[in-house]
Amino acid sequence: MNFAAILPEIILTIGALVLMMVAAFMGRRASALCSWSAVALLLGAAMALLGEPQRAGALFGGLIAADGFGAFGKLLIYLCAAVAVVIAHNWFERDFEHAAEYPVLILLAVVGMSVMVSATNLMSLYVGLELNSLAAYVLASYRRTDERSAEAGLKYFVLGALASGILLYGISLLYGFTGTTQFDGVAAAFLRDGTGSIGLLFGLVFTLAGLAFKISAVPFHMWTPDVYEGAPTPVTAFFASAPKVAAMLLGVRVCLDALGPAIDAWRQIMTFAALASIFLGAVAAYGQTNIKRLLAYSSINNVGFALIGLVAGGVAGASSVLFYMAVYVVMTLGAFLCVLRMKNENGEPLEGIDSLSGLSQSRPGLAAALAVFMFSLAGIPPLFGFWPKLMVFNAAVAEGLYPLAVAGILGTVIGAFYYLKIIKVMYFDAPGAPYARGGSGLEGALIALAALVVSPLGYLLIGPLGQLTANAAGSLF
Amino acid sequence: MIAIFAFYLFATLTIASSVMVIFARNPVHSVLWLILAFFNAAGLMLLLGAEFIAMLLVIVYVGAVAVLFLFIVMMLDIDFAALRSGFTKNLPFGLIVALVLLAEIVVAVSAWKAGPVTGGAQPAATTQPNIEAVGELLYTRFLFPFEIAGLILLVAMIGAIVLTHRSRGDVRGQKVSRQVDRRPDEAIKNLNPAVGEGMKL
């Protein structure tokens, strides 16, 4: 058995177990120790991705695969999780009893996500997804004294359990009608029987419905705004980044690998999900007054764009999805880092969009950074957020899917409205009560770094990042 | 011969204890009858050569589910007399459910007479007992998901503790070292109170 190929997962698992014992015996004093160790473990696991985990191929009899695609996803996930641990450290430390267990749960969720992005079997897919989801339910209700947080956790749990049930039903149908849970075996069965078999078709639909829930694509998005609003802000930042990447990459692998020969069947479903997500994410965000809810709709909207790349299929489509997710997590984490700075004089977090009014006068730096992220999320040209959108549309056009690309561009225009509304509130409205100063220098540095990446300077990354995503996508085929 | 005897023993006891589950007046007795029914069903599984399912039935249903039932029945203050008073009201619905079940049994029996339904995917007949077969697959081919499943249970435990545990200020834990270090002269006081005066502590 080639254990070097799963070295990142081994590092994270053993690290999580050790930190769990430290947290159990030292209590809340261990908070700082656990957080920084978790960050070190995540960075160590990211280093361990070099070498075997990128090229070892099928492991454990084909249950998972160590390839470039999985390694790219894991790199994104580990970096997002490290940011989520860093920002939570400052957020929880003041009053929190179980702050030391937070990094442990993040690490275990990350193990689950690692399994998700490298799964090549329906069973490892499911256990990875469930490990991630279960940790996420706990994280959503982490501030248990806060009613909204508890509500978010419960809602997420009930709807997530429902989605898991739907997914399992789909998996059982696929298994029943193909006789295997291996992705390549399922693909071979689709190639042999086509989508004429009603059982296979039902299995495909249910499996994709379960996965659509996890990436919060319309029509399975209803949990997203409530959970994002209720969960503590660092947890929301985590939800909007790492699990999204994991579920999206899992969806790409399932669609292109396991359901590859049935592309005509899932293309319709994914086209609908993509367009519905883009338009609903854009339209429903209009009336929002809470910045976290707004960012939730923004994430739904962005998932729609990434799905356009998936609909296009092929190496170009898959690599555009990877590129999109890489830029998306930087923009989203940057936006959430700015939201974390929204605190009143007593240090209580604020979430209302109206509290941003006139931010350009009281905090010009913060306002500029948030403006950069908003422009970038809207996909307005000189900023880097424009490039991944161009890539997914290019991939769609190359496949001859002109109506889809046109509809997507239309959605971008509609969605730009609410991103620009925030910039208008910050730059043209009368200043309100200023935010409290202070906040960790590391967070400030992270905001600056994220802003730098999505600024026009980010175009320098197109070469190396494009190379990386193309290699990763190439390993799927 | 002994197998037939065992079958009728287990089958009769299963049916009898199932009937008692419904008719027992005390809900705790109902759960205990249910446990007996599970044990007998496990015996039936053994006769079929499905040792693994028999063990699962005992471990999961008796060990976990039935104990949970018992726990809930005792924890919740349910007025069972009030529940039973709706018997005549719910009778038509109960009869419909019974009819549906009966129809299903009739269909199943007639389908069984028509021949087996398996679509060619017969399990390979081996001499290996099925517990061994399951164990071997679990620890070799499917080791990876098995370990991840262990992590899922760990997350569930951590989550339950994190969401419900609060450290309280008024808890006085046991300090073993102080107990061991204690000397008789600190712990015992010899007094000789005068008659009628009582003790001063």
UniProtKB/TrEMBL annotation, chain A:
Provide the top EC class: translocase
Tell me the Pfam families matching this sequence. Proton_antipo_M
Complexes and interactors:
NDH-1 is composed of 14 different subunits. Subunits NuoA, H, J, K, L, M, N constitute the membrane sector of the complex.
Tell me what organism the protein belongs to: Sphingomonas edaphi
Q: Which domain of life is it from?
A: Bacteria
Q: Which residues cross the membrane?
A: 6-26, 33-51, 71-92, 99-117, 154-175, 195-213, 269-287, 294-315, 321-340, 366-388, 400-420, 441-462
Identify the residues that the record assigns to the NADH:quinone oxidoreductase/Mrp antiporter transmembrane domain, covering every copy. Answer: 119-415
Q: Which biological processes are named by the entry's GO terms?
A: ATP synthesis coupled electron transport
Q: What does this protein do?
A: NDH-1 shuttles electrons from NADH, via FMN and iron-sulfur (Fe-S) centers, to quinones in the respiratory chain. The immediate electron acceptor for the enzyme in this species is believed to be ubiquinone. Couples the redox reaction to proton translocation (for every two electrons transferred, four hydrogen ions are translocated across the cytoplasmic membrane), and thus conserves the redox energy in a proton gradient.
Its localization reads: Cell membrane; Endomembrane system; Membrane
- Mode of membrane association: Multi-pass membrane protein
Keywords assigned: Cell membrane, Membrane, NAD, Oxidoreductase, Quinone, Translocase, Transmembrane, Transmembrane helix, Transport, Ubiquinone
EC number(s) given by UniProt = 7.1.1.-
The principal localisation class reads membrane
The catalysed reaction is: a quinone + NADH + 5 H(+)(in) = a quinol + NAD(+) + 4 H(+)(out)
The record's similarity note reads: Belongs to the complex I subunit 2 family.
Task: Please list the GO terms describing molecular function.
Answer: NADH dehydrogenase (quinone) (non-electrogenic) activity; NADH dehydrogenase (ubiquinone) activity; quinone binding
Quote a single Gene Ontology cellular component term: plasma membrane
What is this protein's name? NADH-quinone oxidoreductase subunit N
From TrEMBL, chain B:
Q: Which residues cross the membrane?
A: 6-24, 31-50, 56-78, 90-112, 142-163
Which reaction does this chain catalyze? a quinone + NADH + 5 H(+)(in) = a quinol + NAD(+) + 4 H(+)(out)
Main subcellular location of this protein, as a coarse class = membrane
Gene Ontology cellular-component terms for this entry are: plasma membrane
Instruction: Tell me which EC number(s) this protein carries.
Output: 7.1.1.-
Cell location: Cell membrane
Q: Which family does it belong to?
A: Belongs to the complex I subunit 6 family.
The protein's name is NADH-quinone oxidoreductase subunit J
Task: Tell me the organism.
Answer: Sphingomonas edaphi
